[in-house]
Design brief:
alpha/beta; globular
């Protein structure tokens, strides 16, 4: 199947990515690109979902949207969820400064779950623990920078922590990817409903498949890729 072609005007809005992926209309196929050649022969790889140029263009539009919507034009406070969102958060923050001169202050948080990190269908809940808590965010207007909104258990715990314990002034969520889940449990639906009430900025929506690249990992693989790929989950579930 061929990738969906995206025109420049479409980057102003949330982009829906099909299973076969998208492609920027300005991009040309590079048959000599060793990165792509290696991927296509890798049995962990399934598809190229979002190429590098498409990521760059959508991040430029997200930066403009954030600048328009924030009330405080003196500073913007990012809370980057480690480890997956660190590349996205850095690129987005630099882009905001380039177009507006508004300084972005970077805060970080890291959470993990007690259960197996591999997502299972029909999950009801996951217990979340903080490995790194944010500092100096009280009474701030916080934008959470997330790599992907999936089932939402960790993000839900983070929202509750920020609102109830850290007493932040406001919370918005900016996610690079929003996954369209096929068969979420009732508990997942409830978790996502709370998250979506704070979800202000979305880069792309993606189908319910495993993804990696651009900071996002599949069992610690593929973080350094400059694009987003679909992952062959059978490789990981069978190992």
């Amino acid at each position: 199947m061929c990738s969906k072609i995206i025109n420049s005007d479409e980057y102003m809005n949330v982009i829906s990515v099909p299973t076969e992926g998208i492609k920027n209309f300005e991009e040309k196929e590079d048959g000599n690109n060793k990165v792509y050649q290696n991927l296509y022969s890798d049995n962990r790889f399934k598809s190229l979902l979002i190429p590098e140029e498409s990521l760059k263009k959508r991040i430029q539009e997200l930066a403009q949207l954030i600048v328009k919507k924030v009330d405080n034009k003196d500073r913007i406070d990012f809370l980057i969820v480690l480890t997956g969102a660190f590349i996205f958060g850095a690129d987005l923050g630099r882009e905001i400064y380039k177009i507006s001169g508004i300084e972005v202050f970077f805060h970080t948080v890291k959470l993990s779950t007690y259960q197996d990190e591999i997502k299972r269908e029909g999950e009801i809940n996951r217990q979340v623990k903080f490995e790194l808590k944010p500092t100096d965010i009280e009474k701030r207007d916080i934008i959470i920078i997330e790599d992907i909104v999936d089932q939402g258990f960790t993000l839900n715990a983070l929202l509750n922590y920020l609102v109830k314990k850290m007493k932040v002034n406001s919370v918005k969520i900016c996610t690079l990817l929003l996954k369209n889940l096929d068969n979420p449990s009732k508990e997942v639906k409830q978790s996502r409903k709370y998250i979506e009430s704070h979800l202000t900025f979305i880069g792309f929506t993606v189908p319910d498949i495993w993804v990696a690249g651009y900071g996002i990992d599949a069992s610690n693989d593929f973080r350094s890729l400059p694009f987003i790929i679909g992952v062959n989950k059978k490789f990981y579930l069978s190992n």
